[in-house]
Amino acid sequence: LPYVPQVPATALLGKVTATTFALERPRCVFDGHADASDAVWLAVAFANASAAFRNPPSRADVPPYKQLLTARSYMTLETAAAAYSCSAAGPPVLRVGSDTACGDQDRQDPCNGPLPSAGPYRVKFLLMGCGGPKAETRWSEPILLRRAVSPSTIDPAPARRGSAVLIIASILASLGAVLAAAVLGALGAKAWGSLCRRDLGTDAFIRRSYRTHHIPPALPQPPHPSCRCSPPGLCHSA
């Protein structure tokens, strides 16, 4: 079949990781070739071993995941062909390598375990019926996974830069607190001065309200004209 499997071109979280990658779902690819009892498999091989891969004659001969490092290929994601028809509903992508429990399984069932290295890998879809392979797609382009970084190569500088950022943030926070205190102090002083001015105005009003009228001092009164004293102690009328 002319279909070529590929990693989705659109942005997708975790599209390619160190142990997994996503594939577009092959919808409408096997319509007209599959029966109701047929199944579609995904063959995964190291890119340099894909040319040597041979389709298994039956389900019993499907290469299992646990032999990937020795056989250089395996098959997984067994799915009823009807799930890939044009009318079938389902997620738009498939994830290869997502089953982390594969290493703990001793059974021979096909497993979709994490990929052991960065690859690169090639994949193809294979339609199998009761009598063996019926149709297949082309191999994908090489898919290279992300490489894990050795702890010895990690630059500690980002940690130092992080500490410097924390110090700068602390200084800015302190300056902000000082500025806030200054603003609050200025507002408090302004409010206090306003209250004092109001109090002074009330005092002045009270003092003005109770100020008495001016009363001139009493002038000395002259002695009565009808009484004259010549020798001390004597007084007679004029």
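The above is record 1. Record 2 follows with the same two-line structure.
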Amino acid sequence: HPPSMRTPTAMIVGLVLCPCGLLLTLTGTLTPNWRQVSLMLNQPSDLVLEQGIWDLCSERQSSHDRRCGQADELGYFKEVPVQVARGLMPTSLVLTLLGLVVATLGVRCWQEEPQHPVAGAAGLVLLLSGLLSLVPTCWYTHKLGALPAPSGGTLAAGYSLVLSYLGSCLEILGGLALTLSFHRCCKK
């Protein structure tokens, strides 16, 4: 019969999607734009407030004058969805790194056969890390309008929230692809 590929396709898919998910989730976690507030009462019409899980920034759209480290006068950081995101997003990032190290050990392209149980276990870790970042992202999105904001402002999801959501989904898909390695163990 024809020679088989050294590294199964599912493992390659997992090893491509998960680092991409890690980069998106890392960017979403660190950047201060989970939510944008614009058109606030008694404020210039071009002022946009950006709220992240670590920082608050304001930017004048006309002059691109951006100031971060704004005071949290409304108690935004004390809100439960923000606190949960502050705990789960870094935990997810650490777990993703751990899962990628284990996945690399399991896939090991330089040896004759990949270690399917190790790659499958890495898939479970990466699946869990994706879920850990998806939970706060979805909860924050659900509570987007309920979190404190300056009066009369128009609320919109920020790019950090979108990147975190996409990163979580890529990690989940990559983790699922790697867990398919268990199928090979069961066949033996």
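DSSP finds five helices and five strands in the chain.
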